[in-house]
Amino acid sequence: MGSTSAENDGKGVGRRGLIKRSAALGLISVPAMSFLSACASGGGDDQEKAEAGEKTAENPLAVNESAGMEFVLFDGGFGKEYAEDAVKLYEKAFPKAKVKFSATQKIQSTLQPRFNGGNPPDLVDNSGAEQMDMGVLVGKKQLADLTPLLDAPSYDDPNKKVRDTLRPGIVEMGQFDGDPVWILYYAYTVYGNWYSQKALDSLDAEYPKTWDEMLAVCEKAKKKGMAGWTYAGKYPYYIPFSMSPMIAKVGGAEVLKAIDNLEPNAWKHPAVKTVFEAWYELYKKGYILKGTPGLDHIQSQTAWAKGDALFLPNGSWVENESAKVIPADFGLTVSAPPGIDDNDTMPFGTIWASGGEPFIVPAKAANGAGGMEQLRIMLSEASSKNFTSKVKSLSAYNGGTDGIELTPGLKAGVAALELAGDNVVNPRMQDWYVQLQKEKIGVSCLGEMMAGRLTPAETVKKIQGYADEAAKDSSIKHYKHQ
Length: 482
Prior knowledge:
Blueprint: H1 15-19, H2 33-40, E1 69-74, H3 81-93, E2 99-104, H4 107-117, E3 123-125, H5 134-139, H6 147-150, H7 170-173, E4 184-196, H8 197-202, H9 211-223, E5 227-229, H10 240-251, H11 253-260, H12 270-284, H13 297-305, E6 309-315, H14 318-321, E7 332-335, E8 351-360, H15 368-378, H16 381-391, E9 394-395, H17 408-420, E10 424-425, H18 429-432, H19 434-450, H20 456-472
Parallel strand pairs: 1-2, 1-3, 5-6, 8-10
Antiparallel strand pairs: 3-8, 4-6, 4-7, 4-8, 4-9
Helix pairs in contact: 2-4, 3-15, 3-16, 10-11, 10-12, 12-20, 19-20
């Protein structure tokens, strides 16, 4: 494996020896100052709140039946039809209410001025490349606590609370510090290495479980004119979808927790260096699709779907987002990342799976109760089934798949979760410190490393520097794994 060989080549410690030496980990968090300043400033008067309605069995959140409700959705991989269908149910329940629904990819630039001006919408799907920094929103008290929604009767069974209908980990993901729940992650996402089973079969290869096996598969692909990998080069924070669970597999889940906690020297854990060196070898051996650093997520997914590259780090939304370009006989599947060798801390199958598509109700929303009621409707079995059947993803609702013919990617995701068992990791950096994860770790470090402009050692040093700055920055709200 060259620079990441399991053996000591006389120039330093071999990769397995390196792993056995020490421990510690932490991650970075440099705030988006424009949004931080906007949230902190007080321009504009707050909008008038809608009066509460009558609380009944059918209206447990006491929504004002004639108050307007505004819902802004991120127009991304899941599309907007599932949300539009849920809005129709809201309008049926409250026929006197005027609902304003819109979808955009420009979440931050569209909504930042409105948060600043005190007139945000009632419900927001805060996702995408322009996602507002969740840690900043929480730290500046811009979000409403969703506990009333979670403690309300579920849409289908009045004897069961909404919180009791959710998949494991969903409630905890919405918490930052203590009991309040600030975010409801509606989708349930499986992250990992996505590939075509047909393409893998054409190479007469099996999915690799170790990194040497991965390199061997990539070499086979290269000889047949196919790159081993591509990724969203313009948004290299997709890379951790595969890299983070690999770090956990090699060094243990505590490594990722230390990173999230911004612990001193967390990025200097030998597992991080080893995994960085492994990935860097993909670049050095020419296994990355030419031009990848200049591709966005759609372009990289399209090249992958066309068979230009074998593996793609991504989330389970990719099946829906790339539906128009994935061939019918593609054999879409996903697997957990390989590790280094049999001496890894966690078993093969260790994967990242967690809530995705974060929905929030702004603290200054005019009709926050209406926003929560819209979410309660979306967490019904019918809406969940509609979401799963239309966008090819599991929802936060713990069920909703009975009677649905699962698509290839969804089947593969379910199988990957079954293989993982308890070995599911959930890094929090991407929602605790959004700008840090995307701009600093992703674009400035991982993107540069995979383009060959930083070495693994330089990347570790640079990221650790960002992490240390974030840990010492008193203007940033810091979070810890409980």
